[in-house]
Amino acid sequence: MRGDGMSVYPTCKQFSEQVGTRCSATLGEETAELELVAAIEGTRSGGYTSYSVELTGTGAPLPQATYTFTHEVLGTHDIFLVPIASDGDVTRYQAVFNVTKESEG
To answer: N or C: which end of the chain has fewer CB within 10 A?
Structure first.
């Protein structure tokens, strides 16, 4: 399923259950292999909740953009990735989710 308004993004708990697993991020014809390294609970306010996930990848850093995220368990969703840190050839990325409480599952 895609994160195009027709599907629900995985919850923070669902992401946290997959920490340590591999996924991919595709933009155009370029695909990068990443590892899901953290799922961080955010705030709840009004009818919304927020959380973030962090991923790492090697090689040339990916630019900030919306990628097609694909994971064997979590499915396929469009997510906005931002590079937040680099250490040698390893780059850490973050995706932030703000969802309605009803769509949390």
So the answer is: C
